[in-house]
Every structure is written in structure tokens, then in C-alpha cells.
Amino acid sequence: MIKYEILINPKWLRKLEYDLWDDDLVPAVLKIGNNRYKISLSYRGNVIRDKKKRSYRVVFEKPFTKNGAHELHLNAEFSDISLCRNKLSLDFFDRIGVISPHSRHILLYVNGYCKGIYLEIESLDQYLLKKRNLPDGAIIYATNNRANFSLITKKNEPKKRLDQGYTLKYGNKEDMEHLRSFIAMINVLKNEDFKREIVNILDVDKYLRWLCGVVCTQNYDGFIHNYALYKNGETNLYEISPWDYDGTWGRNLHGRLLDYDYVPVTGYNTLTGRILHFPEFKSKYKEILSTILDNDFTVEVQAPIINELFEKLKPYISLDPYIESDEATLDEEKSVFFEFIRNRNAYLNSELSILI
Question: Alpha-carbon torsion 25, 26, 29, 30, what sign?
Fold first, then answer.
């Protein structure tokens, strides 16, 4: 496992600690092997900031990029006993044809103190598009649970703005205007008009693949949060990508066990509901999901991937001062993964009959 060491002036470290919710970046140095990078640093995430092991946002200053990336995330994965659910999810989305950030585990030190195992994750931004040879286009993050494609919030309160819950990562004001128009269209067009227009605004096939990924991994928040919209500059269609998927594969974001049938096969949010209203879209979703259940979301396929991830972590698990996991814990946790995949697969297959 590669070692990352952050070197930071104690006064800037105190600034980070003084206000955990401050997103202002502070200067630091990142050392990887014999290479040193001047960086800017801040804490990141929501729930994790209150934990003793926190996640970081790293922005490269000099040089401006590393391996084509200007920014990366170091996720603590504190509430995931396996430290693997996020990576396994992102890799799963990639496998089924959804644009997804790449990730790898690293061992992090700060000013000489071991902070444990972290998950390095690509930032979903214009640099990722360039690395993947994808067309340039706006990227908008769904940063809280108001990003539900609806006119009302999760608490059934009218939204003050149609773009509530969203943050522009890359693009301009016009891109947010397009998003507001998209959300309005989702909610006000009559069925026949929606069916005609949606294919001119959204890549429906890729959206259905994303929906399959959320439904299989059972990310409860994934329908109204934990995603990014990318407007492909060539097709001029929205595509959708996952991020922050630690509350998956049988546990929620707090690490508690979750029943395998907690999330329905149809998922939930306003856009999904409208798309699946139409038999041809529902039939396409059924076809894609059935293929994934047969070829990707099985114990036979995922077990070797999970085993390999766990074996890579085992030599370093005792170095993490913030978690109680050990090699035996990881071995025991495999049963949670395997039982979830087996039961979730059977449940979703049994529910395919309603997708007609």
C-alpha cells in the first residue's frame, strides 16, 4: 500500500480544528515517495466531520496537477468496518457502464503521525473528463437531500429555488439555469410531452444503468444525494455519476445493518418515477437490471474482488489508530457482503415481474 504524508504547519492544523465545518483551504505539502507537492487542504464531507477520523480534500498547487488530476479526496471510511464499501461501489458502477471516480487505498501520515487507511478518490471534475477522453461539459454536484428532482423538499416543503441541493462544480451560471429548466420540465410537463422531451435532455439509457447501480448496492441516499450530473458537451444530454457510497452492501452510512429489501426495485425520486411510468423505459430498465443481476451482481463475481480488497488491507489494518477492525473482523465482515449480495439478488430477481 502506498504511503502519503501530509506536512502542515501546526498553526494551519489548528485552523482546521478550530472550525471543522470551514471549507477554506490551508497550505500544506504532500509527500509521496520521493516526490513533494505543494497543496491546499481542508476537511470534507458531512457526517464524517464530527468523527475522530476525518476526511480531506486535497488540491494541487505546484505542480498544478498530479497524474492529470488537480484535486483528490482522501476519505476516512470511518463508519465502514470493512473500509471497502465505497471503493467496491464505485468500481461496480464503472463495471456496469456508468462514469465513476477511480479509487485506491493509501496509508496516510500527518506530520509523522499515522492516521490510518484512507481511500483516495478522484474528483469528478473537468480534469477527470480530460483523463477519460470525455467531451467537455458542466458538472453539478448533488450536495444535500434537496437534490431530489422535485419542487418540494424531503420534508414536503416548497423549495425556495429549483436548484436547491445542487452545487456547480464546473461550468457557468447558464448551466445552473439549464438545470432549473430541467427540474421544472420534470415536474410540470404532461406525460406525452415528458416522454417526447426527456430523451432530448437526459441520456435515459445511462440513467437507467445508474439506477441499477443504486438499487443493487442499496444506497438509500443515492436517489436524492450522493450523485453528480454531467452535461455531455457532444450529445448535450445529462448523465449521472455516483460518489460517497460507503452506506451500501448491507449497511447504512452509520455502519448499521440494513435489511436487503429496504430499497424497492423501482428506487425513488421524482425523475425515476416519471421515467418508469412509461412501459418502454420500464422494459429497458428490466432488461439492463436482469443482465446485471446475472453477470455482475452475484457472489461468484464479487467474492474474488472483495477477497482481494480485504487481503490488501490486512497487513495495514493494525496501523490505523481510529478503528477497531482487525484481520478477523474483516474475515467476519465478508459474510455480511456475501449474504447481502445473495439475498438482494434474489429479492431483485423476484421483483422483476413488476417491471412490465
Answer: negative
Q: Retrieve residue 161's grid coordinates.
A: 429555488
Q: Note the pLDDT tens digit of each residue in 56-114.
A: 999 999 999 999 999 999 999 999 999 999 999 999 999 999 999 999 999 999 999 99
Burial 56-65 (b: 16+ CB within 10 A, else e): bbbbbeeeee
Q: Specify the pTM.
A: 0.95
CA 221 to chain CA mean position, Å:
10
Q: Is the dihedral of CA 88, 205, 349, 253 positive or negative?
A: positive
Contact 217, 245 (CB under 8 A): yes
φ/ψ (deg, to 5) at 236? 60, 25
**3-state secondary structure at position 251:** strand
Q: How far apart are CA 130 and CA 121, in angstroms?
A: 16
Determine how β-strand 55-62 pairs with β-strand 238-242: unpaired
Segment 220-252, tens digit of pLDDT = 889 998 999 999 999 999 999 999 999 999 999
Calpha distance 54→113 (Å, rounded): 14
Q: Return the SS3 of 229.
A: strand
Indicate if the alpha-carbon torsion angle 158, 23, 167, 105 is positive or negative: negative
Q: Which of 161, 160, 179 is nearest to 170 (CA)?
A: 179
Tally Cβ neighbours within 10 Å of residue 280: 9
Q: Which residues contact 297 (CB under 8 A, 6 or more apart)?
A: 92, 216, 341, 344, 345, 348
Contact between residue 167 and residue 200 where contact means Cβ atoms under 8 Å apart: no
Radius of gyration of the chain (CA): 21
Q: Helix 85-95 to helix 299-313 angle, to the nearest 10 degrees?
A: 140
Domain ranges of the chain: 3-76+100-122, 126-274
C-alpha cell at 149: 428532482
